Amino acid sequence: MQKSRKWIGGVAAATLALGAFAGGAGAADTIKIGASLSVTGPAAFLGDPEARTLKMYVDDINAAGGVNGKQLELVVYDDAGDANNARTFATRLVEDDGVIAVVGGSTTGTTMAMVPVYEEAGIPFISLAGAVVIIDPVKEFVFKTPHTDKMACEKIFEDMKGRGISKIGMISGSGGFDKSMREQCLGVAGNYGIEVVADETYGPKDADMTPQLTKIKGTDGVQAVVNPGFGQGPAIVTRNYRQLGIDVPLYQSHGVASKSFIDLAGEAAEGVRLPAAALLVGDKLPNSDPQKAVVTGYKSKYEETTGQPVSTFGGHAYDGLMILVEAMKRAGSEDPAAIRDEIEKTTGFIGTGGEVNMSATDHLGLDLSAFKMLEIKDGDWTIVQ
Fold it and tell me: What is the CATH code of the structural domain delimited by 4-147+295-367?
């Protein structure tokens, strides 16, 4: 039997048991919701803050009386970023654990492996991964909270257009999100008068992207470079970029929107721009911004509870859980189909990612205004005016 991992208090341990958090209530008094997250492995920078966030807020919700008079029981599996594990755990959540909804799926690869399971079972699934393919085309029971890779491309190209940039190079990772964002960027570049004149890729285990960047540097006319990717790859690209003395602007994706990217890239990150949620710059938002109270509140609670710096990834989990809980309250039912219908009706929800307005044709509910264009200065995030 394949081992799962239970996540308790920030420690992932190999075990045949599952992680369940229900505040000590009996089974009859609980509502089971599930998650399969990449708490360990190469995508742990996504899954770890997501798992911490879900546990933290489920505890709070239960302490305040639960949902519809019942306590939430959160069942969490650690898929370690492996799509096969994720599909196995999705099946287990449905068939063995009997969850009525799922918030999770840290990566595009693990999410897409789970989608058929939840669609067939009729279980609402709110993904925390980035690629637009998750919700386009619309799938009946599948939703997501992070801004899409297509939106990231559009936000980047909008910024480039304002800077008079028309010819760019791209260097992309080979993972699911990376490939998807590369394709989305290629698809929308022409809408902004952008021509991709160099297009390079790197593998997940590559420790030096100098050869690819040297090719881009030697391509005539390159005015900026975009790096669709997440994990350690973009940090390596950024360091190599500076080592080669490339002096045109470098753009990263929202897949590196955490302090760990700045830490990994070091001084080389100075001047890098990327689209990201307001969560990273909550203290810099005007008091009139409706997101300010939400993002500063989440940031304070997360950092005080975990002792770790906040990232947008935990914020995606916060948004997913709260959208689900509000839908459960409106449905007044534990029927997955009724909950699904209420998730789809979500409007005016202010989360860490922006204002969410879903519909039958939009299972994300964010527009481009939900993204902020950030630039790294003096080792910190700043908002590009």
Answer: 3.40.50.2300
